[in-house]
Structures are given as structure tokens and as C-alpha cells.
Amino acid sequence: MKPFKILSIDGGGIRGVFPAMFLAKLEAELKAQGKENWQIYQNFDLICGTSTGGILAIALALGIPAQELYNLYLENASVIFGKKRSLKQLWRSSYSRDNLERLVRDKLREANSGEDPRLDDCRTHLCVPIYDLLHGTPSVLKTKHHPAFKRDFHLPAYQAALATSAAPTYFDPYSAEYKDLNNLDVSFSNKVDGGVVANNPTFLGIIEAQKAFNQDLSNLRVLSIGTGHQKFTDGQIRKNWGVSYWMNKTRIIDLFMQGQSQLVENLISLLQRGIDKEHEPRFVYERINTELSNSHAVALDETDPDKLKKLGEKAAFEFNNSASRIIKDFFEYE
């Protein structure tokens, strides 16, 4: 049976330069090897992405090369995050979404002959988590890869991208309207960044493969890419553990994002090899990430081009270290 291949991309704001560069290197290597189908969407049966990873997942599934996405991030960080509402952050989100919406919408239109693509236009299957603030529930936006899925594939792709990347305190919850494929008006309101429930969506992809595609666990090949992580630690003996400590949004958002991603990695390790790795791997799983040091901390809203280029260099380094293994496991199994 042909292996079922899953690509999963974490959330992480502008740190999406890391997975974008890693995947650009992968596409370049496949192309250099003379493979006709060298693009990501041609090589993965399901792409999952959260927040910035959701933007990348949607764009990749629409056939946009990863190198173009890396360039988009690198060249526009200061456009997206350059004007912080510094004096109003107690009452309003830090940034207007206007520039991000323009950049994302234009890029996705470019891949669809100038028209807004819908999730139905994706060239491979897709899962993008969000949180629905209107109904108070997590949700996963999906392509039409199961007969029961009748809702999300109508959605304009740029709206899905903006919903999954509506990070609390950075951007307002996302609200919009659209006409579905039956020309009916649909409200799509108060959606929040998928990172609040699944910053690392790898486990979602595994469950989706099993339940929507009827895949055995042993047939899965999973490539999961992070956006860089810096360990959140605080071993000080302090008395000020109250609201003033946690009001620092970087502190609390880093805590829940890292905690979720680490838990998913632990659960997948248990699923793959059991406690204490007592048996052979049940499926192929490759996790790519990099640790960010205090000297090279990269904020979710970083605009320093040197820091972002260095994060891209880290992605290239990780690709060079894992390229032979990735190519063997994901592209040379026939």
C-alpha cells in the first residue's frame, strides 16, 4: 500500500520563516534530483497547519512554492508588525490586520488566476485548526475529503488563513462574510488563532488520517516542523506570581504555545514507540525544530531582518542535517 504522508506546521508568528525555509530547501533538493513532482502539495496527502503554519499550509496546498513564502515573510515582517498600538494595548490588540490581509489575499489570488481561491481549490487535503469564540468551541477547517464535510470547503482561503492566525492580543478575532458555492450569504465571525488549542497540529493530522482516510497507523509517514522554541523557565523564588507577572503577553503566550507543542511531541512519542521506547516505531515520524537561545530570541512579531535571516539559516542547517533521512523516508520508499 502506498504510504500516507502528512506534513504538519506549527504556529509561531513571523517565525514561520523557519518552516518556510526548510520546505524551500526540500523543494529545491527534489527539483535538483530531477523529480517532476517537486512541490510540497504534490508529495503530501494531508497538510496541517496552525496560525502562521496555517497560512503556510493553505498557500502550499494551493501550489505556491515555499521559497516564495519565505520571501514574503522576510520582506514584509515590518509591514505586518511595524506599527504597534503601544499606548492602547490595554484596550486593543497590538496590530491592525489590514496589511496582513492584503499580503495574504494578494498572494493566494496570484496562485488562482487573480480570483480569491476557496479551500475547495486546494490541490491536496488540508486541516487548519481555529477557535470559534462565537460558539466557545475549537474547530478544524477542512477540505472536502470526507462525505460528511459539507461546510468549510466553501470558505475563501484567505479568510481561513486570517482566522487561524488571529493570535490573542496581537490581532482582533477575525470576522467576515462570504457567499458559499450555492451563492448563499454565510457569516464567519469571531474566530481566534488555532494556537490556543493546537499550536502543534501533528496529532490532529494523525487522527484525521485514521478516521477520515481509513489509514492504518503503520502506513503513516509524518513530517512535523516547528517554528523554533525557547524554553520557558523561571526557577526564581518570588512573591510576585500574580497578575502583574502574567500580564506580560510574551510570557503567557510562549508558555501555552510551548506547553502544547511539547505535550504533542510526548504523546506522539508514546504512540510511536511506547513508554521507554520498548518497541520498534509503529510509523515513520520526523520532527524538525530548533532551540532559540537568549542571544538569538525571535519574538512572534519580530521585525529585525538579521534575526529572521539567521532563523532561516538555522532552518537550512537543520535541513542539511536531516536531508538524507527525509528524502529516504518520504520520497524514496517505492
Description:
With 334 residues, the protein is α/β, with parallel strands linked by helices. Strands 1, 2, 3, 4, 5, 6, 7 and 8 form an eight-stranded mixed sheet that branches. The N and C termini lie close together (10 Å). β3 and β4 form a beta hairpin. 40% of the residues lie in helices and 15% in strands.
Topology diagram in text:
Layout: E1 4-9, H1 17-32, E2 46-49, H2 52-61, H3 66-81, H4 98-110, E3 125-132, E4 137-142, H5 157-164, E5 174-179, E6 185-193, H6 195-198, H7 202-211, E7 220-225, H8 243-246, H9 249-273, E8 284-288, H10 305-331
Helix pairs in contact: 1-3, 1-10, 2-5, 3-4, 3-10, 4-5
Features:
single chain, 334 residues, alpha/beta, 8-stranded mixed sheet, globular
Largest sheet: 8 strands, mixed
Total beta strand runs:
8
Shape: globular
Find the structural class using helix and strand composition. Answer: alpha/beta
Report Rg.
19 Å
Continuous helix count: 10
Brief synopsis:
This protein is α/β, with parallel strands linked by helices and 334 residues long.
